[in-house]
Specification:
Layout: E1 4-12, H1 16-23, E2 40-41, E3 54-59, E4 67-77, E5 81-88, E6 91-102, E7 108-118, H2 121-148
Antiparallel strand pairs: 1-7, 2-3, 3-4, 4-5, 5-6, 6-7
């Protein structure tokens, strides 16, 4: 069982409160998720997240096989960070920290740190790590389009 880590940073040309409002709204997640993942929120979600919020998704991360994915928002410190953790789903372990730091020029540095363990170790090197990287690559491009090219 191997604990994997993915870390990303991105400078966003918007103030921390605007960035927080966007990323703390679960309904914006499908916008920054690639279509090939067949990502769909299937539970009712509020406009703003809160500690203890349970969100149910449907995803098809590999071979177009659908999985239910249930996450819980476990920590919220508005507008600086929040954490989502998988309760049930395609990973053996999933812990995703989202950090937002206001910079001197009025922009925001967003960072994501994901620790995860895959259910099937042989798939990790072959597929899962590459898929997860491509999801965050897509997310980076979408965030550039939404915030940095206006």
């Amino acid at each position: 069982m191997k604990l994997n880590r993915l870390y990303r940073e991105q400078k966003i040309n918007a103030g921390i409160n605007e960035v927080w409002d966007y990323f703390s709204s679960p309904s914006n997640l499908p916008v920054i998720t690639p279509d090939w993942l067949n990502f769909e929120i299937i539970s009712v979600v509020p406009d703003d997240m809160y500690e203890g919020l349970i969100i149910e998704y449907k995803v098809s991360p590999i071979l177009n096989i659908p999985f239910k994915w249930i996450t819980e928002i476990t920590y919220v410190n508005k507008p600086y960070f929040f954490v989502d953790e998988q309760r049930f789903g395609p990973y053996k372990f999933w812990h995703h920290k989202h950090f937002f730091k206001e910079l001197d020029d009025g922009s925001t540095l967003m960072s994501d740190e994901v620790h995860y363990i895959v259910t099937f170790n042989f798939l990790d090197k072959m597929l899962i790590a590459k898929r997860l990287k491509s999801i965050f690559d897509y997310r980076f491009k979408k965030i550039e389009e939404i915030f940095n090219k206006r």
